[in-house]
Write a structure and sequence with these properties.
Blueprint (H helix, E strand, L loop, with lengths): L5 E10 L3 E6 L2 E5 L7 E8 L5 E11 L32 H20 L7 E3 L14 E6 L5 E2 L19 H8 L8 E5 L7 E5 L31 E6 L2 E6 L10 H16 L7 E4 L5 H10 L4 E6 L2 H10 L5 E6 L2 H14 L2 H8 L2 E4 L8 H10 L3 E6 L2 H13 L2 E10 L8 E8 L1 H5 L8
Parallel strand pairs: 3-5, 6-18, 13-14, 13-16, 14-15, 16-17
Antiparallel strand pairs: 1-2, 1-4, 2-3, 4-5, 7-8, 7-9, 9-10, 11-12, 17-19, 18-19
Helix pairs in contact: 1-9, 3-4, 6-8, 8-9
């Protein structure tokens, strides 16, 4: 087919990644900027794959009742596709309908990859979430063109789009972004920590934060719209549940202003429901600066035993400071897969007492968007902790890892989903797994479906 050809499509579903599903002459077509139940006119952009084609929406012929004026005017379907900035791919949909679509993606991911039927609703980020789902971003990553002008990329491209608004950003962050002027480097990251002062960092591609983490960027020292050289390592302080957390301005922190607290509350509730044992060999994997380890310590008390494992040395450095009130806490700089492999080897060679320390433990993991992966999950299962609490930012990765947990003798006991990225397709989930003692003793006779 000529990829310039336009076709009229009936949208029947939603797929992971902020795209919607139609069929044309028996073939699946993925289309952004649509809603299930709509009929749209679209242009085929990629017909190279036999399994599916890709298209871009040009016009809405029959609109869904859930369609709204796009929350980011520059991203509206009325604009040419190459001029629509990315980052708000659900911004044309009413908030309650967005959350139902995200729940639908979660349910379908679990059915397909974990072979489990789940009942889940997507909850707002917190009680003081803005009514229209705007103004929540405290981190913003922008790109610099050859002429020094700064802006977001168009959706699914590396083309910089000039914009006059950033509605998802906190007002101070949006103001700073709009007043950046011409810049050097390849990108500009802005961060708004708890002190209310915007930091700005100019980066080259090689100096960017870890890829594949969450939809978050970091910033640098200085007032609104000001840049200070070397500010990536400025230490800022974030506040969660009455505690202070040191983190590099250029380091990882949750994007939504309520996200860290909402996730900490969800983890605390999960720990209380499973009967957290503070004296067991508890782990906080992909632990960053120790947010969830501190939640464990807050529940378990001053003698809580927990090791947070993180590959970024600066984050581990801060974790040690953030957790110093708990004498049994340790901050370990290591790749999670290698740390777990060493622990599995040590447990297999040690006395029963070391293995026993894991039997009542809770392992919390908050992996990158790609998920923990089968090897990490199997290593956790080999250590045989009583509980695993999985904080996930990708439904498909969580579903795949759930299948591995289930095969290894763990039951999915609880699943919560939080809307920490309104007007985008992203959704955060907290899953609680418990070891099935009977299946574990029998050598795991196979997954329960």
């Amino acid at each position: 087919m000529d990829t310039a050809q336009t076709v009229d499509l009936d949208i029947t579903g939603v797929a992971h990644g902020g795209i919607f599903v139609a069929r044309h002459e028996g073939r699946v077509v993925f289309v952004p900027d649509a809603i299930p139940g709509e009929r749209v006119r679209a242009r085929i952009t990629d017909d190279s794959r036999p399994a599916f084609w890709r298209a871009e929406a040009l016009e809405v012929l029959d609109a869904s009742e859930s369609r709204r004026p796009h929350v980011w005017a520059e991203a509206d379907v009325a604009r040419p596709p190459h001029e629509r900035p990315g980052g708000a791919d659900f911004g044309h949909i009413a908030l309650d309908a967005q959350r139902e679509l995200k729940a639908r993606v979660l349910r379908e991911a679990f059915e397909r990859f974990a072979h489990l039927s789940i009942d889940v609703a997507v909850e707002p980020a917190g009680d003081d979430e803005s009514g229209d789902g705007t103004g929540w971003r405290t981190r913003l990553g922008l790109h610099v063109g050859p002429d020094g002008l700064v802006g977001p990329y168009a959706a699914r491209s590396h083309h910089i789009v000039p914009v006059s608004s950033y509605p998802l950003a906190a007002p101070a962050l949006a103001e700073a972004a709009l007043n950046l002027g011409a810049r050097g480097g390849d990108r500009v990251d802005l961060v708004l920590p708890a002190d209310g002062q915007v930091r700005v960092i100019e980066r080259t591609d090689a100096s960017g934060p870890r890829r594949g983490r969450r939809d978050t960027q970091a910033g640098s020292r200085g007032g609104t719209g000001q840049n200070t050289a070397g500010a990536e390592r400025e230490v800022v302080v974030e506040e969660v549940r009455g505690r202070s957390f040191r983190v590099d301005a250029g380091g990882f922190w949750q994007v939504h202003r309520l996200a860290a607290t909402s996730l900490a509350d969800a983890v605390a509730k999960a720990l209380a429901s499973v009967g957290f044992d503070p004296e067991a060999a508890n782990l906080d994997l992909y632990g960053g600066v120790g947010l969830f380890a501190a939640v464990m310590g807050g529940i378990g008390g001053p003698s809580t035993r927990v090791a947070t494992v993180e590959s970024a040395p600066r984050a581990t450095h801060h974790a040690a400071r953030n957790l110093r009130e708990w004498g049994g806490a340790a901050a370990i700089t290591a790749r999670v897969d290698r740390f777990l492999a060493a622990e599995v080897a040590a447990v297999s060679e040690a006395s029963d007492s070391r293995a026993h320390a894991y039997r009542g433990a809770t392992v919390l993991l908050d992996p990158p968007r790609a998920g923990a992966g089968a090897d990490v999950v199997r290593s956790i299962a080999t250590l045989a902790p009583r509980t695993a609490i999985y904080v996930a930012c990708d439904p498909v990765a969580l579903a795949r890892d759930t299948a591995t947990f289930t095969d290894a003798g763990y039951e999915l006991r609880e699943l919560r989903a939080l809307d920490l990225f309104p007007h985008s397709h992203h959704v955060e989930a907290v899953a609680v797994f418990e070891r099935d003692a009977h299946r574990a003793a029998a050598g795991s006779a196979g997954p329960r479906r």
